[in-house]
Amino acid sequence: MAAQARILVTGATGKVGQVFIERLLADERFGHFRVRALCHNRRLQESRRLEVVRSSIEEKEVVNS
Question: pTM of the prediction?
Answer without folding.
Answer: 0.79
